[in-house]
Write a structure and sequence with these properties.
CATH topology of one domain: Sulfite Oxidase, Chain A, domain 2
Strand content: 25-35%
CATH superfamily of one domain: Oxidoreductase, molybdopterin-binding domain
CATH architecture of one domain: Alpha-Beta Complex
Number of helices: 9
Largest sheet: 5 strands, mixed
Structural class: alpha+beta
Distance between the termini: 55 Å
Number of strands: 28
Shape: globular
Helix content: 10-25%
CATH class of one domain: Alpha Beta
């Protein structure tokens, strides 16, 4: 057989399998038509920094409109800023990097401070041989690292945080984003200061009105924590902690202190309300789980997903994201029959530790009702649980679930109706 002809036949055979792609496009059930309303930059501004095409309108969603803040009404202090609670449109993204302008924010309802980088100072003190103050130039003059890592709010996906059965992947899981972070390793600063015997924790404090503080075990601080001043090749955005923030890979988002102003080396952790109440898990016996650091393995299908519509039967690429606070993702499986059978998805390169991993799975929809879902396994062998598995892990019932506001990583199912509409059926 002529190898060239055989290869040509195979090419056309594959092409025929994909022939339904144009007719079977995924559409948003609530299509955005606001291109004409997108503010236009002046020609000079566009030349100086660039702008996206006016037809591209994907944006973060402002959850202040729902009047919710950690499951309760927002405070009426009047201090709430423009970046308090914005959720990443995961369904519209490609690859693993979240554009800086679409990275989620959660500022606990407070205004992002306006810090002059020329006046910036970072204090490192406490149980050290010598207290030090670093300017931004000081930090930039130290050996730098650039690492790709996700940041995820501990309440991401939780019905306590989002309300039962949110419409889309953005509303359900939009409190995670992944960026390339550049800065100096915290271990370098600690070595410069000299850590004293008996020290076990580092308290990190923000410069905003809240003076938000979290305690990080010294072992973690020395391992891989970054004092970051760069994001995706440029300075961090205002809402992302400009000019300097902490990046604590794989851990609950609240440990990634933004607008970092102070690091204090101590022998015991800070025990304020954020550590003992707000960022804890309430158990059925009335006690709270403290210091639950790492985010567990999680995956979500982003296309097709809730709020989208399959225009007709035919070929579709199921795609989504997987990540784990324990390390790299080793496997993602996809089910198109509600979890009865599973097949391996392809992991797109790069597959990095404590970073989003993009997975893809080819699928031909026959036009009948289907439930699609994904599950991942990380490098420690931990497998993403079903909803029943998650409930069993915490020893709770579904009625109690809204009280568990942390580390929710149950498998996310999307139901596709015969009409092609995609719905979130996590809790139905």
């Amino acid at each position: 057989m002529d190898l060239k002809q055989s290869g040509r036949r195979q090419f056309w055979k594959q092409g025929a399998a994909l022939a339904g792609l144009a007719a079977g496009a995924i559409r948003s059930a609530t299509a955005q038509t606001r291109a004409a309303e997108t503010p236009e930059q002046s020609a000079e501004e566009a030349r100086a920094y660039g702008e996206r095409p006016r037809f591209e309108t994907t944006e973060r969603r402002d959850h202040r409109l729902a009047g919710q803040f950690h499951g309760a009404p927002y405070p009426d202090s009047g201090s709430r800023g423009p970046y308090s609670d914005l959720w990443t449109p995961l369904q519209d993204l490609r690859g693993i990097i979240t554009p800086s302008g679409l990275h989620f924010t959660n500022n606990h309802g407070y205004i992002a401070p306006d810090i002059d980088p020329q006046q910036y100072q970072l204090l490192l003190h406490g149980m050290v041989d010598r207290s030090l103050i670093f300017t931004l130039d000081d930090l930039k003059n130290l050996p730098s690292v650039s690492r790709i890592h996700f940041v995820e709010c501990n309440g991401n996906g939780s019905p306590h945080f989002n309300g039962i059965n949110p419409d889309s992947v953005q509303d359900a899981h939009g409190l995670t984003s992944c960026s390339e972070w550049t800065g100096v390793r915290l271990s370098v600063l600690l070595k410069e200061a000299g850590v004293q015997k008996g020290a076990h924790w580092v308290d990190a404090e923000s410069a905003d009105e809240l003076r938000f503080t979290r305690s990080i075990p010294l072992d973690k601080a020395i391992d891989d924590v970054i004092v970051a001043y760069g994001q995706n090749g440029e300075a961090t955005r205002t809402e992302q902690g400009y000019p300097v923030r902490l990046l604590v890979p794989g851990w609950v988002g609240s440990y990634n202190i933004k607008w970092l102003r102070r690091l204090k080396v101590v022998d015991q952790p800070e025990m304020g309300k954020w550590s003992t109440n707000m960022y804890t898990t309430l158990r059925p016996d009335g006690k709270r789980r403290w210091f639950d650091f790492e985010m567990p393995p999680k995956s979500i299908i982003t296309r097709p997903s809730g709020g989208q519509r399959l225009a007709s039967k035919g070929f579709y690429e199921i795609t989504g994201l997987a990540w784990s606070g324990s390390g790299a993702i080793r496997r993602v499986e996809v089910s198109t029959d509600g979890g009865r059978t599973w097949k391996d998805a392809e992991l797109q390169e790069p597959v990095l530790r404590k970073a989003h991993t993009r997975f893809c799975f080819p699928w031909t929809w026959n036009g009948e009702e289907a439930v699609i879902e994904s599950r991942c396994t990380d490098e420690l062998g931990e497998v993403q649980p079903t909803l029943d598995g998650f409930l069993k892990k915490y020893g709770i019932t579904l009625d109690y679930l809204p009280s568990v506001n942390t580390h929710f990583n149950a498998i996310q199912p999307w139901k596709i109706t015969p009409e092609g509409n995609v719905r979130n059926v996590m809790f139905s």
